């Protein structure tokens, strides 16, 4: 065993020292760029991860090998003759400690099933409380508040009219898109005259990445069945939309002339996370296909391209939608803004403009993070490793526990963490590839940032789901509180009745939304679409009437409007919703009564924690500073006891006199009060008996010690 222990400590020391030296050596070169504090934090993180992931398995392997080759000898138990007779003083001390433990652990604490439940709750509360705290701090520290303002400012600048140009909302006809492109997308990004760095007129620190791409979807087949929307054209044309299309030997030389009339489909198998449809006001449009034209880097060449497109009538009344796509990069904010300007043409020739801006942070590496953020990242990783370790041990020794709902939630949390980590690496790699591509002097290319934007959006969605799952898992740990227990028990008891009423409400809302949309959809925006009608009716039912006016229900006629209003207000809002609330209220009362019946015979979690920590409290009280000394105040013990009893009696007489003068009430005693009072009296009686046994044992110890001293004195004489 000595050899085994020495080898174990030798291994631990060598492993820790080697990992520390390796880490310090690796990160010593980054001290100038990262800082010593960041290098120390990263070194600490690698040491801890190495200890959890590699140190523990190797340590257990060494211990198992030592147990296999140097097995410990069998323990030798002493016989009765070797032990001898037990001294009475040792027995009394043992009995005294046992009675003190019995006094600190009452009968209610001896429910082992409840104790194991509370122990699991305490462990979950400690683990997931830290988990929730660290991930919330990470989200707050890593979130960039400038993203929202950047999106709003860029959207407003491209939407409305200003002194040097006019906005997208001022495009009244399709040919006005040429003037908008000329003034807003060409002239405003050439204020310095430098073709290699195109700065924006509103901000010199914001540059245009690559070139602007113009993309349109056309409808040419007007002989469709008139039931569905006409399909978009996928034919290729010659300049001026002439047919038949044919290739020329000099197409690659004069590609700018033929490109705008050639249909292109940029869909690929790598765009799995990219939604392939743009949802517009009128219909959905393809996202990576259509007739495309690229502007140039220089202002003069871009004007030539726009004049060429206008002269050959690239935009006609067959154009269903025009997209203007480009990417902006803000140097100060380190934000990459992906802008998509859309103009939809209705069947009457009017324009419906829309501006969409997605802003993502370009870099989130270690050298761009603060010290506090790095510290929270390290704490989160340590907590996550601890969580994975506990989950793996639980499922390894008891695989049947995977059927439990909460263990499935734990597995989902683990999977989401891995997915988020993978998506973050993919996003950073894509953004890095974009800037590496720009560094290779690619001036005449459109920078495709769509995949990076969708990866960023998908990562944000996964983080939101992770927060929801951690909050749900923390809910289970918070069930030690009576409020959470009451809510959970209410849901368990009432889910069938509540689900039935909810289904009835949903069915009536769907039918009512269809009916209102049929009668009032042509005259009201809130009921123009089916999904909009459902949202409007649901908001009106539950009292959110800020954007809904009752007059909108009367657009189809006064009589029909009165029927709709009465159904919505009285049937759905008053009858069904109140029935829903009444059912929940009844089951809350039932769950509360069941909880009160049980709570009188069980301890709460704070009493459990105090009983578990009682050993440490007693050890702390043994220190001299924490010992409670008895003060006689020049009186005997009996006089002090009588004085305390007399003060308690005087206080009780004053309280009874005050209550008698105030009012006389007859309290009805319920069976639950009898049960609780009986349990309290039984607990007090047991406590009194235990205290009496402790006092008797202490008296026996004193007598034993006094007899021992007398015997010793006689022997000495």
Automatic annotation (TrEMBL):
<feature type="transmembrane region" description="Helical">
    <location>
        <begin position="125"/>
        <end position="143"/>
    </location>
</feature>
<dbReference type="InterPro" id="IPR051223">
    <property type="entry name" value="Polycystin"/>
</dbReference>
<keyword id="KW-0325">Glycoprotein</keyword>
<dbReference type="InterPro" id="IPR013122">
    <property type="entry name" value="PKD1_2_channel"/>
</dbReference>
<feature type="transmembrane region" description="Helical">
    <location>
        <begin position="314"/>
        <end position="331"/>
    </location>
</feature>
<dbReference type="InterPro" id="IPR003915">
    <property type="entry name" value="PKD_2"/>
</dbReference>
<keyword id="KW-0812">Transmembrane</keyword>
<feature type="transmembrane region" description="Helical">
    <location>
        <begin position="42"/>
        <end position="66"/>
    </location>
</feature>
<feature type="transmembrane region" description="Helical">
    <location>
        <begin position="493"/>
        <end position="516"/>
    </location>
</feature>
<feature type="transmembrane region" description="Helical">
    <location>
        <begin position="372"/>
        <end position="397"/>
    </location>
</feature>
<feature type="transmembrane region" description="Helical">
    <location>
        <begin position="409"/>
        <end position="426"/>
    </location>
</feature>
<comment type="similarity">
    <text>Belongs to the polycystin family.</text>
</comment>
<feature type="transmembrane region" description="Helical">
    <location>
        <begin position="559"/>
        <end position="588"/>
    </location>
</feature>
<keyword id="KW-1133">Transmembrane helix</keyword>
<dbReference type="Pfam" id="PF20519">
    <property type="entry name" value="Polycystin_dom"/>
</dbReference>
<protein>
    <submittedName>
        <fullName>Polycystic kidney disease protein 1-like 3</fullName>
    </submittedName>
</protein>
<feature type="transmembrane region" description="Helical">
    <location>
        <begin position="6"/>
        <end position="30"/>
    </location>
</feature>
<keyword id="KW-0472">Membrane</keyword>
<feature type="transmembrane region" description="Helical">
    <location>
        <begin position="446"/>
        <end position="472"/>
    </location>
</feature>
<feature type="domain" description="Polycystin">
    <location>
        <begin position="168"/>
        <end position="360"/>
    </location>
</feature>
<feature type="domain" description="Polycystin cation channel PKD1/PKD2">
    <location>
        <begin position="368"/>
        <end position="586"/>
    </location>
</feature>
<dbReference type="InterPro" id="IPR046791">
    <property type="entry name" value="Polycystin_dom"/>
</dbReference>
<dbReference type="Pfam" id="PF08016">
    <property type="entry name" value="PKD_channel"/>
</dbReference>
């Amino acid at each position: 065993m000595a050899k085994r222990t020495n080898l174990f400590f030798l291994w631990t020391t060598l492993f820790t020292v080697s990992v520390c030296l390796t880490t310090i050596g690796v990160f010593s070169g980054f001290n100038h760029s990262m800082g010593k504090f960041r290098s120390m934090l990263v070194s600490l993180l690698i040491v801890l991860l190495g200890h959890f992931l590699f140190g523990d398995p190797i340590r257990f392997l060494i211990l198992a090998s030592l147990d296999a080759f140097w097995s410990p000898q069998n323990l030798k138990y002493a016989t009765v003759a070797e032990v001898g007779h037990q001294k009475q003083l040792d027995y009394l001390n043992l009995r005294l400690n046992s009675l003190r433990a019995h006094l600190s652990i009452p009968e209610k604490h001896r429910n082992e099933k409840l104790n194991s439940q509370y122990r699991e709750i305490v462990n979950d509360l400690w683990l997931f409380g830290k988990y929730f705290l660290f991930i919330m701090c990470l989200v707050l520290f890593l979130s960039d508040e400038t993203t929202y303002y950047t999106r709003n400012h860029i959207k407003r600048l491209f939407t409305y009219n200003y002194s040097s140009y006019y906005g997208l909302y001022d495009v009244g006809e399709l040919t006005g898109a040429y003037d908008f492109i000329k003034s807003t997308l060409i002239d405003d990004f050439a204020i310095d005259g430098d073709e290699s760095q195109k700065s924006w007129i509103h901000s010199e620190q914001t540059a245009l990445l690559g070139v602007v791409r113009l993309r349109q979807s056309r409808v040419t087949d007007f002989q469709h069945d008139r039931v569905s929307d006409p399909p978009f054209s996928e034919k290729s044309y010659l300049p001026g939309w002439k047919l038949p299309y044919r290739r020329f030997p000099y197409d690659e030389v004069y590609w700018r002339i033929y490109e705008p009339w050639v249909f292109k489909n940029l869909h690929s198998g790598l765009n799995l996370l990219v939604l392939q449809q743009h949802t517009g006001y009128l219909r959905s449009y393809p996202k990576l296909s259509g007739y495309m034209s690229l502007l140039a880097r220089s202002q003069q060449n871009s004007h030539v391209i726009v004049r060429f497109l206008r002269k050959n009538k690239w935009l006609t009344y067959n154009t269903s939608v025009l997209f203007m796509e480009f990417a902006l990069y803000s140097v100060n904010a380190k934000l990459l803004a992906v802008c998509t300007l859309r103009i939809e043409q209705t069947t009457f020739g009017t324009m419906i403009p829309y501006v969409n801006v997605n802003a993502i942070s370009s870099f989130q590496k270690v050298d761009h993070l603060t010290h506090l953020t790095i510290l929270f990242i390290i704490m989160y990783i340590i907590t996550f490793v601890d969580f994975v370790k506990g989950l793996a041990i639980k499922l390894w020794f008891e695989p049947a526990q995977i059927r439990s709902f909460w263990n499935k939630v734990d597995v989902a949390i683990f999977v989401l963490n891995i997915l988020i980590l993978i998506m973050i690496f993919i996003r950073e790699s894509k953004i890095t590839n974009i800037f590496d591509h720009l560094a290779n002097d690619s001036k005449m290319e459109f920078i495709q940032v769509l995949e990076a934007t969708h990866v960023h959006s998908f990562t944000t969605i996964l983080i939101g789901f992770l927060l929801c799952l951690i909050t749900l898992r923390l809910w289970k740990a918070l069930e030690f509180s009576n409020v959470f227990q009451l809510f959970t028990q209410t849901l368990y008891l009432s889910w069938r009745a509540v689900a039935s009423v909810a289904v009835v409400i949903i069915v009536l809302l769907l039918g009512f939304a269809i009916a209102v949309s049929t009668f009032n959809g042509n005259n009201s925006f809130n009921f123009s679409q089916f999904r909009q009608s459902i949202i409007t009716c649901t908001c009106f039912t539950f009292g959110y009437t800020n954007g809904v006016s009752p007059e909108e229900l009367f657009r189809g006629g006064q009589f029909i409007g009165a029927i709709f209003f009465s159904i919505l207000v009285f049937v759905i809002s008053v009858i069904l919703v109140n029935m829903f609330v009444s059912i929940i209220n009844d089951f809350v009362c039932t769950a509360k009564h069941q909880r009160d019946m049980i709570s009188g015979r069980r301890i709460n979690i704070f009493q459990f924690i105090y009983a578990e920590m009682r050993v440490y409290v007693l050890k702390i009280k043994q220190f001299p500073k924490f010992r409670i000394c008895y003060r006689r105040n020049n009186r005997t013990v009996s006089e002090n006891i009588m004085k305390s009893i007399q003060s308690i009696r005087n206080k009780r007489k004053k309280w009874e006199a005050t209550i008698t003068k105030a009012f006389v009430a007859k309290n009805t005693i319920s069976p639950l009060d009898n049960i609780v009072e009986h349990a309290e009296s039984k607990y007090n009686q047991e406590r009194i008996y235990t205290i009496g046994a402790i006092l008797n044992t202490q008296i026996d110890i004193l007598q034993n010690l006094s007899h021992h001293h007398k015997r010793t004195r006689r022997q000495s004489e």
